[in-house]
Amino acid sequence: MRIVAIPEPKKIGCSLIAIIAFQLVHDKVASFMAALSKRKETKCLYATSGRFDAIALMWFPSTELLFRFMEKEVSKIEGLKATETFICMHIEKTF
Q: Any idea which fold 21-87 has?
């Protein structure tokens, strides 16, 4: 068991919550996930079955910073084939 404090994103300056799904080159899944897990924006990261190989819950202060992150950071991680980004409009329940 692990007890952790989970901050409210807006109260720490992250008003944008995104769920980002990644299609990856299969032999690069582990290294991609290792690289993405080091990012402070990454709050949860899962290897998944189905259309996407990984899904991340990420927090950002703005859409502009999400854009820069996707354009300048994620695009450089080896093994990325495609992404799909979902912006959370409302949170009904969390952990």
A: Alpha-Beta Plaits (3.30.70)
